[in-house]
Design brief:
heterodimer; A: alpha/beta; six-stranded mixed sheet; 10 helices; B: mainly alpha; 9 helices; elongated
Amino acid sequence: MSRSQQSTPTYKDMQGSSLAIRVSDLLTHYDGRVILNNVSLEVEQGEIMVIMGGSGSGKSTLLRYMLGLEKPSAGHIELLGKDITCMNDNELHHMMKNIGVSFQGGALFGSMTVAENIQLPLKEHTKLDQKTMQIMSQMKLEVVNLAGFENLMPSQLSGGMVKRAALARAIILDPRLLFFDEPSAGLDPVVSAELDELILRLRDAMNMTIVVVTHELDSAFKIADRITILDRGEILMCGTVDEVRNSDNQRIYNLLHRQPRTDTVNVDEYLQRLTGENVND
Amino acid sequence: MKHTIEQLGKRTVNALEELGYAASLLYQSLYWLVLGKLHRQPVNLPLIATQMMQVGVSATLIVVVLCFSVGMMLAIQGLETLKPYGAQTQVVTGIALAVTREFAALITGIIVAGRSGSAIAARIGTMQESQEIDALRVIGINPVRYLAAPALLAMVLVMPVLTLFGMFMGMFGASVYTFYELGMPIEIYMSRSFEVISLSDLLQGLSKSMLFALLIVLVSVINGFQVKGGAEGVGLATTRSVVMSISAIVIADMIFTFFITRL
C-alpha cells in the first residue's frame, strides 16, 4: 500500500503549511561539466519528499547543495525562508541548528562512542550540562531502538545500527528539516523497512520536513508524500506516488521497471569522445 | 613541447593554489584560536590537550633516544676530527652550539613530521572519505576550528618542549662518549656546555621548532583535506604529507639559518 493511501495525515492535511525548502534555477558544475541544470524544487513543511534517480543522475549532488556544503554556479536555495547561498559561515552555523542529516555511511565519528557522537551537536549549540545531555541522547537512542548501545564505538555496530545511531545524532536538536542520503543502502529488507517506519514516525510525531535521497523503489513508495525524479541533472517529474507510478514518461518507466536505457548512440559524438577530435573537421 | 609547458603551468598553478590554501588555513586557524570565543565557537580545549598528548608525550621517548644518538655520533666525529690538532676538548663548544641551534630542532621536526604529521593527514583524510568532515559542517562545526586549530596550537606548544628535551639529550649523549673517550666527567661536560650556550642560541633552536610545527600541521592538514579515492587516496596523502613536511622543514631551516646568521 502506498503512503498516499494510508490513514496517517499527509503534509497537505496539515494546517498552516508553508514552504520549508525552495530550490530555484539551481545550476552546478564539476570540472567544467554541468551536473545540475536549472533544477527547481519546493518542499512543504511537514512533507516527506523523496528524490529519486539512477546512478549519476545528480541526486546526491542536489542534497549536498541543499545542505550548503557546496556553492552553486547559479540559482538559490532557501531553507526555512532563508537563502543559504548568500549566507556567511556564522549565519550557516546558526542555520545548521535547524537541520539534521543522516549520511549514506552514517558518518559517525570513529574516535567517539555512540553517545558522544549523539551529544556533539548539543555540545556545539547548547550550554546544557553533561547529565542533561546524557538524558537527551538516551531518549533519542530509545527513539531509534538503540538503547543500551551508547558506550559502543561505531566500529562495533552493524550497518543498520550505524544508520540508526546517525539518525539519533541527526534528530538530537529536534531539527525542523531532516535529510537522509540513501537510508536503505546496504541494509537487508527487514532493517530497511524498520528504518522506513522510523522516518514516518518521526515526521508524524515531530512534524519534521524530511528529504530522502534514494533509489530504492519500495522504500520511496512507502514513505513519500511526493517524489522528484532526477535524470542527467534535470528534474523529469515531481508528483505524488500515484502520479509517478502512472507516468507515461519512458525514462521514468525504465527507472520504475528496472529497464536498461535504450538511448540511441550518436556515432559522431561517440567517435569524438573516443578520439578527442571532431570527426566532421 | 607544448605538453611539457602545459604540465609545468598546471603544476605551478597547483603549487600556488596550495600556498594560498596554506595561508588561508593558517589565517583561519589563528582566527578561531583568537576570536572563536567571541563568536561562541571556541576551540575545544580537551581536543588541544589530546593533541598535545599525541604529539608530545607519546613522541618523547623516540626524540630522547634519537637526539641522544645524534649527540653521541657528533662526539665520535668531532673527537676524531679534532684529534690531529690536539683540540679535542673544543668538541664541547661545537656540539653544544650545533645541537642547540640546529640538530635538536631538526631531528625533533623530522620525527614529529613522520609520526604526528602523518597521523594528522591520515586521520583527516579518513574523515574526509567517510563524510565525517561533511557531518561536522552540517552539525555547524567548522572543520578548521575543530581539526586544524587544535592541532596547530598543540604542535606549536609541544614542539619547543620536545626540542628542549632533544637539546639536553644531544649534549648528554655527547658527554657520555666524551667521558668514555677522554675521561671528562659528565657533569663537567654539561656545565661547560651550558656556559657556552647563549640565550640567542636557545631562542634560535626554539623558534625553528615553532616554525617546523607550523609547517608540519599546515602540510598535513592540507593533504588530509584533499584526500580523494578511498584507502589508496589516504595512503598517498599520508606519504605525500611526510615527504612534503620533511622537505619543507629542511628547506625552511636552511633559509632561516641563512637569515639569522646575518642578523
